[in-house]
């Protein structure tokens, strides 16, 4: 092992509202020599995810906040460069959670092996990674089944588009909302959604009622805010809500929906979801959803930026709706 | 059967905000002669419930609104006066849903027999009736069990006080909120709550954090509003919410909680409840909770007003917190 310098993205100050480039810096660290039982990994792709915004806030929480002056933790897919552990050999491809850095050393249990024959390997951050698994867990969480009418917000995002495609494979009637005509076209033409609308084109409730005149059975919430309120109105008796994300409120506080009384009157169930509770099901997910992908039944859509210095811009872009599907950084 | 005149309370106009006496009238109707297969019942007690406010509003809903110019539907316990059906005989005591009237005729399937030896018979509207069953169903709905810390709002109301007593019988740590010092005393001294506070004495979140410094596992919501928001903050990871009532918002619209994001981060489950979905479990409820009552393990608390002409005042009083336990009208 030669002397390796790794670039990494560090948080230097906590954003107040929308993050800006000034909240981050790029730093260099020297990788320490490999010890017995350790593996050296060079990252190929970094995952860029909305949930990371939550960890940029200070304060006691169930997930510790990112530390200032340290590399941002997060998903990545990389290649083993050198190994002093029998579990891995150079050339193996692995996913990990060491985040926005070029190189790192790790113990075997901190790495998850994936199939290097699958292309592009970034799919292990998206459709076959944590966002795809989030979609799959969400559908399982409220038992989404054939015949259900499901409405998915943030439908052109990393979680949403996979949720919609998996729901179609289960025999659901699938409706999606997204923020541009291009995204709506993607949902209808590429992902097989039955109906889709642009939430910037008019009131969400009006458009949802038009797309689902008889109501919906399930709402897969990635955005919160006005869309959650509309869904509470459109849900049928005994409907279910998957509380997966609330991106509309990540950078500015929001009042809750003014019609939460529908939870009672319609006897709704709402369940919150963090995928990390479900890691013991990862093998089952990879087998089922990996099978769909290999068979060409599941489309993987990514927005790829190149270079670690583009990661911050890509992250800010998530809140401006710049991603179609999963946002990833390809390291050059 | 002689000529019977029955007085009844009718809705004459739909309340805008808080109901007033002017929204109601008292009317007389003549009971039609009994047909074969019919039973004549004289009501002994009328049930007065917050949920009736919802049915006073107009508009398409899952429960049809009360009709103007007709007697208000609702629970009652009465005595069979005359029967032309083999299922009932004079002297039998029954519950029904014909509401705020002195006499009515009904088919056997519209009547539910109860034990006339139990005293007071009004307990079949409260602890052993729909509000007690609501409490019991709520605890079952989210699997409340020994060791859970449960917080109950509206705890001195008809549903809340029974929910708290049943939770104590299950081995829970029970915290309640109510609107007066007298009610807090009732919860602590009569119902066996571990902790209780008066929400009019200070911010709910502050008082809840003081009562439950390590958080809560379950929130039994009867009030919504500020208290729901505080509970979302106090709930632990994988906590559960029973969405049973939202009395703080029945007469004026309310914004939703501004911290619904806790549903995701803490992976909470919220389930809405209407007791009428569970009527096939009524026998099981009566056996279990009736057993507690007969054994002196469950206290039944009622606020009784006398005379059908007092029903409207009793109903309005619910929103002013005038009831301790179940509000009933005793017919003279």
Q: Which two chains touch over the largest interface?
A: A-B, 36 and 36 residues
What portion of residues of chain A is helical? 10-25%
State the secondary-structure class of chain A. alpha/beta
What low-confidence regions of chain A span 5 or more consecutive residues with pLDDT below 50?
Answer: none
Number of domains of chain A: 2
The assembly state of the depicted protein chains is homodimer
CATH-defined fold name of the largest domain in chain A: Quinone Oxidoreductase, Chain A, domain 1
Q: Output the CATH class name of the largest domain in chain A.
A: Alpha Beta
Walk me through what this model shows.
- The structure is a homodimer of 332-residue chains.
- Chain A has 332 residues and is of the alpha/beta class.
- The first copy, chain A, has 2 domains: 5-126 and 300-330, Quinone Oxidoreductase, Chain A, domain 1; 130-276, 3-Layer(aba) Sandwich (Rossmann fold), CATH 3.40.50.
- Chain A contains 9 helices and 15 strands.
- In chain A, strands 3, 4, 5, 6, 7, 14 and 15 form a 7-stranded mixed sheet that branches.
- Chain A is globular, with a radius of gyration of 20 Å.
- The interface between A and B is large, with 36 and 36 residues.
- Strand 13 of chain A pairs antiparallel with strand 13 (269-272) of chain B, so a sheet runs across the interface.
